[in-house]
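S., here's the first fold you wanted:
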Amino acid sequence: MDRTRWLSSLLVAFCLLQQYVHSVDLPPPCDSEIYCTGDILHHVQLAKIFNDDKHFVDMGLKDTPANTIKKFQSLLLRYKSGPIDREKLIEFVNTSFTHPGTEFEDWNPLDWHEKPKFLSHITDPALRSWAAHLHDLWKSLGRKINQNVKDQPELHSQIYVPNPVIVPGGRFIEFYYWDSYWVINGLLLSEMYDTARGMIENFLYMVDRYGFIPNGGRVYYLRRSQPPFLTLMMESYMASTNNVTFLRENIHLLKKEYDFWMTQRRISVERNGKNYVLNRYYGSAGDPRPESYSKDYEMAAKLTGGENQTFYSELKAAAESGWDFSSRWFFGSTNSLLDTKTSSVVPVDLNSILYRVEKALAKFYTDLEMHDEATTFSTAHSQRLEAVQAVLWDETLGTWLDYNINETRRNPNFYPTNLTPLWASCYSDPSVVDKVISYLETCGALDYQNGLPTSLKNTGEQWDFPNAWPPLQHMVIEGLEKTQSKKAKDIAFRLAQKWVTVNYEAYKKYNAMFEKYDVQGDGKPGGGGEYEVQLGFGWTNGVIMQLLDLYRTRLTSSAACASFSGILYTLPILIITFWI
């Protein structure tokens, strides 16, 4: 080939590559010079005016961004030779911003009613009464965004969505992506079908607008997503309503979100001479996370050279996983956040979720008689099944494990997510169930009275020991319960009873539900991480409602007392037997 033809071919290839890149729906950058980058964010967050960095970036603007920036630049000019006076900075914030939460209006869900059917199925009177209180909490966790956010979006970090949302609670006063899966499942049990559908419509609106769903409902979350549960939300909604028209109108957006994960978060892994396509979490480089700016900035100051850019990227990837933060992502010598390498991990749970997504989409397309698309997704989930088994299954331990592409090895540590292929039914050989049960019994994770720990490493991070989190309990319990193994089902029920007990006892003590719990002791709320434990709490309530419905006649509010009574009952028999 002569030089001219070679250059011409190279140019064509480059143009085709450009077309492909521009055809992909990339997450839009947050270009706000108030909430995502710029001098105001930097100075205010490093001054630590508020105990929680999130407070500032959730405040609304009283004037336009341009006028606010101009006002701040005038303040900066007065302090050329040193830092801005703290009192002047506080004055600037107080005169320029409104309090978080002012972007909402009062909302009372019209589809809430007092006695959904699932309550009557719960045998234990105390648990039934508790479930009724949880059902009532949807009203206090509901939010509707006011019209001003739609008309003047530049004055808010809140992203406008057309329908009311159920928020997690506490500091989280906007929707969050993966939290909403368990919230929606709870709403469906509460027969709040309109509210559940409205939340799904909000997520579809996000996909249509951005090409993906951001981590949460703020502009500063626009560079990362969270575990992709939208299709599974639709699956739950369809199981309750069979609204085929709604599915048909929006199936293209479910596929659009899937395409985001398969273009922006895919990775090829070579094992035994064959390449497998799987998925990972990923974050863009750049600045600290606005909602945790001071912590990220101060941590990055310990690094040298350009390592801080990579560090910020890895923190965002961990936040996208929902596990922010955990030893699960630590690979290095410090065993701290500085060793976070999330983007090098092929996670078991993400690929299990996507397997279920592919399987659900195959069924949806079949139901809609769109057979070519159904075949595409049937092939996709078959290929993922093979990839998960080839890359993530560990025959020695008898479980699935995260795979590190940089170190070309699996992470041998316990995490509840190791069992998520059971929840996704992402296995073809029934014998793996017995192996996974054996793994679970020998790894030590079942030894705690208040549920499964998130890991067996105590690092001080909130997604590590001794914390236990609702979604992980539910995925493991549901995964064990759906097998054909009696032993697995027995373990599932015991875990459900533990989790219901710790939540119920904490509720009686604190009159609140929490986002996480301690697996040790009397079941106090969990701790560690970047902020104080939050109460509310959306997904906690949804998980408990699902477990109370699943084991409606078996769960008891007096499990600990019943166990103690059993000892008292058998003790005289043992004494008599010994005496004889």
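And the second, which I think is the more interesting of the pair:
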Amino acid sequence: MNPIGATDDPLFAERYRAIDARDIRFDGQFFTAVSSTGIYCRPSCPARTPKPHNVTFYLTSAAAHEAGFRACKRCLPEATPGTPEWDIRRDLAGRAMRLIADGVVDREGVDGLAARLGYTSRHLHRLLVAELGAGPLALARARRAQSARTLLVGTDLPVAQVAFAAGFGSVRQFNDTIQVVFAFRPGELRLKARAHHASTPDADQPVDADGTVAPVRLDVDLPVRQPFDAAGVFRFLAERAVDQVEVADLSKAGERVRYARTLTLPQGPAAVDIVATRIGHTGWRVRVGLELASLADVAPAVARVRRLLDLDADPVAIDASLGADPALASLVARTPGIRVPGAVDPHELVVRALIGQQISVGAARTHLGRLAAHAGSPYESAIAGLSRLFPTPSQIAAAVPLPVAGERLDPDRPLRLPGQAIRAVVATAQALASGELDVHVAADADTLRSQLVARPRIGAWTAAYIAMRVLGDPDAWLIGDVALVAGAKAIGLLDGTAPTAASHRALAHRAEAWAPWRSYAAMHLWRAATDAAAARRSGR
């Protein structure tokens, strides 16, 4: 609940110990408001630890704003990674926060947010205030303030353009919010706390009346909760990269990894170029180059990249839980901070999962590349290797012909799959395009799974995979996954001679002990299966 201010509350005591230790692991997971100073801080703030009776803990910075506190000028609490709670929580508050982070309130208002969640705006406001200490408008304002701080500190964008890029409706509203939240004017905040690395939008691009620049190119640093298995996440994405839509460079995987792709954002087509550079033994710095149709797409682009890389996960809690199981301890020690890659477009992920569900990763990549080349829209990018957008559901439905019984197969058709598989892909694309199948980041997990498995050729495995990557479900388990069984056998968790069906049942039962982090356990087992296969090929 929010706020937490009772000093005899066990949760208060736990959080107070964290701020007394200035524990960086909790940055972004809660905020510390101090009544004697009127400010709120991140847990690792270097200032003197306040007395317990002056402290109140809030789950969101918006709740601290609403209670009359301003952000600390020393520790800049708005510069932290997001809380992992929104992916763990499957309730209305967690689902609402995922949509707010994607900018839905800025684009559609509170009524639009409420409609997407299936509630009235009044009920949604009442629930969010009760659960998080702030209503949807206040939560959206806090998100805009965080985006604005990132752009003021990390880029050379003119202040007026920062206002529109962060989602504010006017420069005056932007100035007022920054002053209230940070007790600085925007220009002062930039001078006080800007990063060492800055970028400038293309100077020769025309500026529209609403403050946008098209196309916009700028770089932004993304806060990362450490440890972060950057090499593993980028390898996962690289292995599945679709030609013309995605490119990756793992040539210096120990020190630097890169992944870039095109995507469609609310204001138009875009591309992102993500580079992770190693800092220390397990730490990584992540910087994303944005190529946008409008400054208004900065916040949605950043939110989707964060979900794609699972940057808001709590790796310490995940590693501690999974590492406590002797069967997984060695895997956790070998790969601290493992992540579950997300998705930048829920509809795209559904299509990719449906095409790839019963074939190899390489074969799926070939089919998807052919589909993108045939049905995807061309895109002119300054990023080498990117020239096409992944096709929308309506484009797929229009471009993929349904097979006719007895008809000779055309070798140039966009999908060379069995007839039933093609029909399932087209039918699902039509359902996504019409809204009959509604897949988005804030969908109710149980409802989404039920809708998916009710469709032809979508089974429990595919539904779980979509929930894992679209919803960020940390506890999905892919029953029947051959690679999971192979990984379990590789580490001696299963008897290598057991029948396949029995192995799947035994592993699913064993995995119950890994809740609520079964998605992360799956990533470890997939890695173990890949390593074992590589060792066999090399003869070790």
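Why I say that: The domain at 346-538 is CATH 1.10.340.30 (Endonuclease III; domain 1). The first helix runs from residue 10 to 20.

Talk tomorrow,
H.
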